[in-house]
Specification:
The complex is a heterodimer of chains A (about 325) and B (about 290). Chain A has about 325 residues and is α/β, with parallel strands linked by helices. Chain A folds into 2 domains: about 10-220, 3-Layer(aba) Sandwich (Rossmann fold); about 225-285, Alpha-Beta Plaits (2-Layer Sandwich). Chain A has 11 helices and 13 strands. In chain A, the strands form 3 sheets. Chain A has a 6-stranded mixed β-sheet with strand order 5-6-7-3-8-9, sandwiched between helices. In chain A, strands 11-12-10-13 form a 4-stranded antiparallel β-sheet, covered by helices on one side. In chain A, a hairpin with a 2-residue loop joins strand 8 (about 200-205) and strand 9. The longest helix of chain A is centred in the middle third of the chain and has 16 residues, at about 165-180. Chain A is elongated, with a radius of gyration of 26 Å. Chain B is mainly alpha-helical and about 290 residues long. Chain B has one domain (about 1-285). Chain B is built from 12 helices and no strands. Classes of the chains: A alpha/beta (about 325), B mainly alpha (about 290). The interface of A and B includes residues 91 and 106 of A. Chain A: InterPro entries: AAA+_ATPase, ABC_transporter-like_ATP-bd, ABC_transporter-like_CS, P-loop_NTPase. Chain A: Keywords: ATP-binding, Nucleotide-binding, Transport.
Amino acid sequence: MHDGSGLIAVQNLTKQFGSVTAVQNLSFTVSPGSVTGFLGPNGAGKTTTLRMLLGLVKPTGGTATINGRPFHQLGQPGRVVGAVLEAQGFHPARSARDHLRVYAAAIGVPDAQADQVLGLVGLGTAADRKVGGFSLGMKQRLALATALLGDPQVLVLDEPANGLDPEGIAWLRTFLQSYARMGRTVLISSHLLAEVEQTVDQVVIISRGQTMFYGPLEQLRQSQQQRVLVQPSDVNALAMALRNEGVQTIEQLPDGRLAVSGVDSKHVADSALRAGVSIYGIQEEQVDLERLFFQLTSGQYAGYAPAPYQQQQQGGWA
Amino acid sequence: MGNLVQAELRKTTTTGLWWGLLIPTAVLALGWGLATGLLGQFFVDFASSSDVDEVSDFLGVSPDQWKVSLFGMARAINISTIFPMIFGAMAISGEINRRTITTTFLTAPSRMHSMLAKMLVYVLWGAIYGLVIMLFVSVGVVLTSESGQLPDAGGWAMLTLVCVLSSILMTMFGVGVGALIPNVAGTVVLLLLYFLVIENVLHGVLAYLEVPAVIGFLPNGSINGLTGSVAVDLFLSTAGVVPPEIEDVLRAIAGAGGALDWWWSGLVFLAWSGIVFAGGWAVTQAKDIT
């Protein structure tokens, strides 16, 4: 049986669909007690990875385990892991309550649990309506209710914010954070860092089927060197003064400002004062996670930038 | 396992498919039952009035005591069990089509557990369909037949048994094909084409080639043999001595040309269902659910 640790471990996971390598030698672990974001652009292999973890897709190589066991050895998987996946279907003619009662029976929990999870996701009043008439957001909530039926220790959500309105997203954020705080494991995938930035504590970033970064979000923030952007009256004088003080990473930005790395704004202002340079504007650059994310995942499916227009050379005799 | 069986049972009772297919099944069974009685009556009248007395002497009973309804009933059961087969065919292909298979596999210990639970539930449904078919065929036959042409109590019991068995086996066959070809339209069209057209053509070809014995080993031939053989046996048990040539004709009328004993036919079809289910299981087991 499984060890009850709540740990998700992915090791050297590889999946090939014919000649296409969807996931290549992927490794990471997800610990209980925090919400982990699983990030990457569309087509990076997120869904395939999650489906391998859940035993729906057979890996070409490597292992994916929950509580130390592959999915099919969990015994009663519905009580260990709940999942909301893209393209997870419902029978349109079945009511929300009937849908949940089917799977409550499969997992082996009492029928009352169906109504309880319906209330939990805010679908209590829609229990007797047929799922065929549900909006995308309601279906997403019902999928979450299904995942919660067995009161699982591990929750895996593939792009859960899809179809949810802003209120729903805010609700989901609070819900997932409190779920993780109870000592459970939450893994949620997204192709938008901004969408989950406020929800997750840890991130796994993948691109082209490979792990690009894996660790606390805070560490990712700190990995980007902070810069001071300053607009001096005399760019050259300030740059000279800073260089004399040993500051080497100075960059001139297209808008005329200087970007200084490795020192804080106070240091730059003091240097400017000593050099007799006025400062018209100064700011410490906020770390832009989105840009970091792009740097980590760039290249995949990126189109070429349009080439600048060039006049044809007409030979050297003109 | 009990949990999964209950889940699968709930899947079938929470949508309308079971009665949506049961209504045409009942109508078809009733229609065949009525037609059987009328045709039988017509045949008996014809036999009694004309100079076919020789045949009746031959069979040792007067035409009005011929249990001709048996043949029509066997045919009616064969045709009507197409519906439970379609019902079974939707079990797995329907889940793949609607993508509910993902949740099903996420809540079951293994895919094999899911499929076995499904099979058990569909065996139960096959039995229910079989009883309904028998009920409506019987009502039709009784309404339009003289009592002399109807089977006795033992005959009714035997026909009910093979009708239910036949319906269960056809449902299981459908479940297997639905797993093998995970596409609702493809599965249904293939099954209908095969059972209504392809194999009938094959039967003709085999009879022409003078190897009718092979028919009894084909899927439709064996399932027809299950009910047809019982009908012929019951007919002959009250008809005295019959030469083998006449018996062959009778078997052909009952839809059991070249068929084996009823229980042999049942085993042959069970083997077909087993092969198809094993294939469906292998496909489902290896399938990437994306």
